[in-house]
Specification:
The complex is a heterodimer of chains A (52) and B (217).
Chain A lengths: L1 H7 L4 H27 L13
Chain B lengths: L1 H60 L13 E6 L8 E6 L3 H4 L4 E2 L10 E6 L20 E5 L3 E13 L21 E9 L6 E14 L3
Chain lengths: 52, 217
């Protein structure tokens, strides 16, 4: 998978490295700011109230 | 005859390698995403709470929004626990739904207000969303819990600590633990999850009002 992506990145190794870093950063940002906030309410490791 | 067989064998081995590599890469990726999600729960959620606390604490210092206008999601009072550090201060928000507790410790609507006779009940996160009640278990008898409300500063004294089941609603009673008795003193009850990173039980800290210092006009 990663090899497949790497082979399709254009340019020299340095350029590819930069593009790859940007791609990883974008993936992390999407997870952190969009996906995780949606998942978080389903994780009940911090239930603090007392109720019936 | 031997050569095509060999070629077929190599092609087969290549396919197996490709599948194994894909499985391996996916597993590693899933593991990294899970790690990142844990990091988000522990630290990412805190950023939200810190931002909301800034707003709520600013709200508390404004003169016109006193106790007269308590609404869900608004600030009720400033909670300080000197034992947990001199910079330990959280604005208590009205409400204990998930959306309120993300902003900071939440006051049970309907339970007593700060300093009032009855039980001032506050719940707060222990591990996520800035974890305001993370070190609640360190409180001991006679430690002070300071609640700054619009009209006065109320200082409570810790009386005891307990671990209860999540449905033990008696701790919310006007006299904590004694739902049939009507109160003549002002109590405070703080609750959070127990053990850490678990929703199995609740850690409860009880206190009683020790001192009231009215604010100067």
């Amino acid at each position: 998978m990663y090899g497949w992506i790497w082979r399709r990145l254009p340019g020299s190794t340095a350029v590819r490295l930069l593009t790859a870093t940007v791609l990883v950063a974008v993936a992390v940002a999407v997870l952190w700011y969009a996906v995780f906030p949606l998942l978080e309410p389903a994780v009940t490791l911090d239930e603090v109230t007392v109720q019936e | 005859m031997a050569i095509p067989d060999e070629a077929r064998g190599r092609a087969y081995a290549g396919r197996v390698r490709a599948v194994l590599r894909a499985v391996g890469e996916s597993s590693i990726t899933a593991g990294l995403i899970l790690l990142l999600f844990c990091a988000y729960l522990l630290w990412g959620t805190s950023a939200y709470t810190r931002g909301q606390q800034l707003l709520l604490q600013k709200e508390l210092t404004r003169k016109d929004t006193g106790l007269a206008r308590i609404e869900l999601g608004r600030a009720v009072a400033l909670l300080r626990i000197p034992e947990l550090g001199h910079d330990y201060r959280y604005a208590v928000v009205e409400g204990v739904d998930a959306e309120h507790l993300r902003k900071g410790p939440g006051h049970y609507p309907g339970s007593a207000l700060p300093g009032q006779v009855g039980n001032f009940v506050v719940s707060g996160h222990r591990t996520t969303y800035a974890a305001p009640f993370n070190r609640l278990d360190e409180l001991e008898r006679d430690d002070e819990i300071v609640v700054d409300a619009a009209e006065a500063r109320y200082t409570y004294r810790v009386t005891s600590q307990d671990v209860v089941e999540p449905d033990e609603v008696n701790v919310l009673a006007p006299v904590p633990g004694k739902p049939d008795i009507s109160p003549i003193r002002a109590y405070i009850t703080l609750s959070t999850c127990h053990p850490e990173y678990s929703a199995a039980q609740r850690l409860i800290v009880y206190g009683v009002l020790k001192r009231t210092e009215p604010r100067k006009e």
